[in-house]
Amino acid sequence: MSNPSLLILAGDGIGPEVMGQVKRIIGWYGDKRGLNFDVSEDLVGGAANDAHGVPLHDDTMAKAQEVDAVLLGAVGGPKYDELDFSVKPERGLLRLRKEMDLFSNLRPAQCFDALADFSSLKKDIVAGLDIMIVRELTSGVYFGEPRGIFEEGNERVGINTQRYTESEIERAARSAFELAMRRGKKVCSMEKANVMESGILWREVATRVGKEYPEVELSHMYADNGAMQLVRAPKQFDVILTDNLFGDILSDCAAMLTGSLGMLPSASLGAPMESGRPKALYEPVHGSAPDIAGEGKANPIACILSFAMALRYSFDQGEEAARLEAAVEKVLADGARTGDLMGPEGGTPLSTSEMGDVILAALDASL
Ligand code: IPM
Ligand code: MG
Q: What's the rounded Cα separation, in Å, for the pair 195 and 227?
């Protein structure tokens, strides 16, 4: 049987640096666990624009459709600020999400014990936090038509459309309930049913799907209240189900609860392929961090944990995913810190590759 295939799109800014550490981890699984992947690499975002004048080449798109999973680093940077909107780096990522139909975006926010002090919230509010945001990723205001900037009388008007079909809500909701069944059996659905018709429909459909999961406790919250509750008492949540735009905002908020944006992975999943594996793209929640790009300072953990999610959700290697997560937890408990994780007491931060070194050593020690 041939090896499962991975397409690496490291992208811009710190993307290639953090992905460099993931490549070492992938190599470790081949050498030490007999888990071999056929890895290919290509360009996305500003890097693709530099090479081809577009943020995602058609050939790259075609490759992404064929592989078992895509690993993405980050896209964007000030160098590309002046580019036309249609070829901005972000458009490459959005094209991948849309054309691969990756409707379910899983964004876990877990607070590692060793980092509870780094949260901007009090330690007891975040210690032990373990929530999962399920963000609908292929519809809503990110993609709805009509959209554009139009002339209206003697001024211009900017238009985007929040649009959700029942089936779009339904499949995102179903993935949230399925996850909840394997976790704390609670789903909180967030929308703005008090002001938006799309929110009314969202609530209705979430309730209907919820009836298929009688063991799961479903609650509803307006998204603004949800943001407030996330910083007030985040441990009340297990799975949060929400739309594309609210999910974008709420997941950044949830991420920061854990101490650093440099820690959080994500998985974007679509429908099952012929192999039974879902279409999948894995990427850190953080961006390209142009301010520290190229300096070897970036924290590779979010990208490494994204690969752990790939092991779990694409390759049915839950135990190996747990091994990698435990290695990360171990090095943090031992005091390994990149610059983003330095407390006021200071110390010497590890470089990106030094963080890779200690995680690899912890993996070795796990054997
Ligand atoms: C995210 C990012 C993206 C989004 C950008 C880069 C297009 O913020 O993945 O959260 O808005 O979805
Ligand atoms: Mg975002």
A: 17
